[in-house]
Design brief:
The chain is of the alpha/beta class. It has helices at residues 3-19, 89-98, 126-141, 172-175, 183-197, 225-230, 239-256, 260-266; strands at residues 56-57, 63-65, 68-69, 74-78, 103-107, 145-151, 200-201, 206-207, 214-220, 293-296, 301-307, 317-324, 332-335. The longest helix has 18 residues, at 239-256. It starts with a helix and ends in a 13-residue tail after the last strand.
Length: 348
């Protein structure tokens, strides 16, 4: 399609849209509609989950049950939606079945909803478990499997079992990565997994570790030690956790490598003299001209200025003044691009 045709189509669309602007109406899909209509897909779902055995991976690498290969089409329920009332649960399950969904992912249960109290978050709420049990029972009746998530957004608030330094970590994503090296946090993760998965659903009669309707269990969602490192979260850990990780890391290196030379060889340490400056106007002698670029996104506002002689060694430096912060750390950026990097060359 050439540009003239594209322009004609766009103008026609805008013209038609303007004509019918006053006659449009809200198109609302009722949350509890389970009527047997032409778009009802519930009939494609095999309902008798118990006869299908556990979901497993077949020899050819696909998800399978007793009757053969199975494919999943599903959605998330998050936070309080994991615990609908007993009057709503059957209607929600029927509605999801009408969409043709055969799996529901129980996501963000651990932030606050599933606990008796979140200060600290240690004891599962029997009332919330009962609502979740009944909802899963209703889903199972419709042939809908579940994906239970464990560590997603748990706050790990301080009790008598965690040090005071946990209070200095305000980002729950960082707290959820502690279990990779902190034995106390890891034990709390294990306790939660045990309490939840060995709990018997009174409506299905099965503990979740033995429930055929549980297709997946996610141990940790989007949290990782490498991720925390690449996000510069490890360098800002409070002293207790920083020292704990640092000690374990150094002990691991000492046990694995007999000498400093072996360590440097294994990790590709290259001793090279530094070459010429790669940044254009790296010392800001000509101000903040291109290719220096300052970015303010979302609601962030501010400016960048060059300060003469206030940098290391009396050099010029750039100062970023943030007048209004954005809602994420990347909403203020100062950068320069267009580098030509060479493979296996040390950049400092």
């Amino acid at each position: 399609m050439n540009l003239r045709k594209i322009f004609f189509v766009l103008i026609s669309f805008l013209f038609i849209q303007n004509i019918f602007a006053g006659t449009t109406f809200p198109f609302v899909l009722p949350w509890n509609d389970a009527s047997n209509t032409v778009i009802d897909l519930s009939s494609v779902i095999y309902r008798n989950i118990d006869t299908q055995g556990y979901v497993h991976v077949s020899a050819d690498g696909h998800f399978a049950v007793n009757s053969g290969r199975i494919k999943f089409w599903g959605t998330n329920t998050t936070f309080g939606a994991n615990f609908p009332s007993k009057s709503n649960a059957p209607q929600v399950a029927a509605r999801l079945a009408k969409y043709g969904f055969n799996i529901v992912r129980f996501h963000h249960m651990d932030m606050y909803d599933i606990w008796t109290t979140v200060n600290p978050d240690r004891v599962l709420s029997s009332a919330k478990l009962d609502l979740m049990d009944y909802f899963i029972y209703q889903l199972k009746q419709k042939g809908i499997y579940v994906d239970l998530n464990l560590v997603v957004s748990r706050p790990f608030n301080r009790g008598t079992d965690l040090p005071a330094d946990i209070d200095l970590i305000t980002d729950w994503k960082v707290r959820d990565a502690l279990g990779f090296f902190d034995p106390q946090t890891r034990q709390l993760q294990k306790d939660y997994a045990r309490d939840l998965l060995t709990h018997t659903n009174p409506y299905t009669g099965n503990a979740y570790i033995n429930e055929p309707a549980v297709a997946f269990i996610e141990i940790n969602n989007e949290n990782g030690l490498t991720q925390a490192y690449l996000s510069n979260q490890l360098d800002s850990l409070p002293p207790y956790y920083y020292n704990l990780l640092n000690t374990q890391w150094n002990n691991w290196l000492k046990n694995k490598y007999a000498t400093q030379a072996q360590l440097e060889t294994a990790w590709g340490v290259v001793n090279q003299s530094l070459g010429s400056e790669m940044l254009t106007n790296g010392r800001f002698t000509t101000g903040l001209i291109t290719p220096w670029n300052v970015e303010f996104h979302d609601t962030a506002t501010g400016n960048a200025v060059v300060e003469t002689g206030t940098g290391p060694g009396g050099l010029n430096c750039a100062r970023i003044n943030v007048a209004t912060a954005g809602s994420a750390g990347w909403h203020v950026q100062f950068n320069q691009g267009d580098f030509l990097l060479q493979q296996e060359r040390h950049i400092q």
